[in-house]
Amino acid sequence: MEIIRETFENKDIPYIGILDELYPDEKIMMFDIETTGLSPDRSFIYMIGINLREDGKWQTLLLFNDDGRSEPAIIKEFQEILSRHTVLIDFNGEAFDINFVKRRMQFIQSKMGMSITDHFRSIKNVDLMKMIRPYKYALGLPNIKQKTIERYLGLDRIDKYNGGQLIDIYLSYISDRNPNSKHLCIQHNRDDMFGMMHLSLIFNIESVSKGLFDISKIETEVKNERLYLIIGISLKHPLPRPIFSSLNGVSFDGEGMQAVVKASVIDGTMKYYYASSKESFEEKRGLFISQLSGNIEKVPAYKNNYKDKISYIEICDSFLGNPEYIKSYVTNAADIILKNKK
Fold it and tell me: What share of the chain is helix, strand, coil (3-state, %, to 5)?
């Protein structure tokens, strides 16, 4: 087994600090594996990439099965490192990487009699692919492959090979020890791990849905004879690219550290239903904005009709004058719009 280590300066990964805010008091690591095939019964792991933070700096460790026989050693080393952490971040790890490692551990136990402690069961897993998938349409992504997302974020890889192409290159290295083949294998996993650190930019989008922003302005606008409520927000972390998305008369428009939620205002009569009964309601005349989905605690939810899925909030002093209500509305709206929850 060979371990390749690289340390990164904070300026090289400036956005990764958001992980401290989203996961305070947690020890975070990331991982990715390279294998000789897709089936854990007929192939094995030849490299495990790990990102972890030591002494305030992020490091990448590449555990390389350099002789074709070191798979048990690199899995054991990985599990020992995993045991010292509380959050594991991966990309499609739940569907592939974690299951593959577990299956190889079972194989090693049954065929070699070597028992390796499984620390997956005691750690919180965060799958970046699952996190990004709901934002696919808002971000305009054609797919959610890691390289596609990296290009969206403006990251240009050095490595030009995919995992499948590198299988033959690795197997050739095992037989001929060509240093260029080794370099290509290491470069690919190194780029995967560096790219995963940059994917932390996606957490900046996720932070809006978690309410990590301040209200900067509340105003109205008349456009094309329609009245809109404009709520400006100052973000705690910058958006990686400009984002615009809308749903049912409410839009989210963000760039950098600023964003605006714009809601079409309805002038009309709505119904407030009591005790979940379609026969018991109170009508209210006023100005309303769509709540899209869900209800803000302590804020009355009005509807056109009892079975309507979309409810409305009255634009009145008790709502506009309460910062907590406004922030809850923006958080809920951003989450639904950006994740396209129709």
Answer: 35, 30, 35
Residue 105 host element (H or E): helix 98-112
Q: Single out the residue of 315, 323, 321 nearest to residue 284, CA to CA.
A: 315
Mean pLDDT, consecutive 10-residue stretches, the chain (342 aa), reads: 91 83 91 96 97 90 97 98 97 96 97 95 94 91 90 78 88 95 93 89 88 95 94 93 92 96 96 84 94 83 89 94 94 91 65
Q: What are phi and psi of 126, to 5 degrees?
A: -120, 110
Query: Whole-angstrom Cα distance, residue 102 to residue 120?
Result: 9
Q: How far is CA 294 from CA 158, 188, 275, 320, 341, in A?
A: 45, 44, 16, 19, 11
Which H or E run includes 237?
none
Instruction: Give the residue carrying structure tokens 């790990």.
Output: 50
CB 51 within 8 A of CB 1: no
- Tell me how far apart the alpha carbons of residues 342 and 11 are, in angstroms, rounded to a whole number: 39
- Other CB atoms within a 10 A radius of the CB of residue 29 amount to 21
pTM over 0.85: yes
Residue 4 CA to residue 1 CA, distance in Å, equals 10
Q: Are strands 45-54 and 57-64 parallel, antiparallel or unpaired?
A: antiparallel
